[in-house]
Amino acid sequence: xxxQIYALTSVQDAIDTVNAGADLIGVVAGNDGIVVEDCTAxxxxxxxxxxxxxxxxxxxxxxxxxxxxxxxxxATRPHILHLAARELPRDAVEAIKSRIGDVxxxxxxxxxxxxxxxxxxxxxxxxxxLILDSGSSTAPVTGATGRPHDWNISARIVAxxxxxxxxxxxxxxxxxxxxxxVVRPWAVDSFTRTDRPGQRGVKDxxxxxxxxxxxxxxxxxxxxx
Length: 225
What we know:
Shape: globular
Strand content: 15-25%
Number of helices: 8
Distance between the termini: 15 Å
Largest sheet: 8 strands, parallel, barrel
Structural class: alpha/beta
Number of strands: 10
Helix content: 25-40%
């Protein structure tokens, strides 16, 4: 069981999060500060450089401008690019993938009903990873809501996906074990629920450690079923 933690905003937080057991580190990068956790490319690169020999690094783009996304990837040099914008047509995704070289692609899937299964099937033809997340069909991006979605739909996606699947959406130290039991994903993600209270973008290492321990214990138990 892999554990992915978003959204790091400082080098020390990233180091503490990896020390707490995270396998993948996510940074929201180069999005003009439209979310609290958004970092400049320079800050994102510093965070990645501090942990990239110990964890996979992920840069999250909320935009749709192919050229700008390409520049962000070149400036931050992540292992994985995560695309969360809902208005990215297939040809734009294909263009981005062709321009980012060895960087892997993670596509966000909005799990808002059974139709997400077809969306995931389509994205799996383009992406190296899927991330199943919560949100609104009217919002321009998927994720960062702090709310779970229907895990039964996510379980159906995981069962048929040809690429690794990350489960996100309101996961916390308290509910991650049940999420793993139901969905059995390749990895689980925490964005908001491992932050320090009232401090978005500032991680609580103890919450991260508990999240990691609970997820891995549940995965081990599921394998023995």
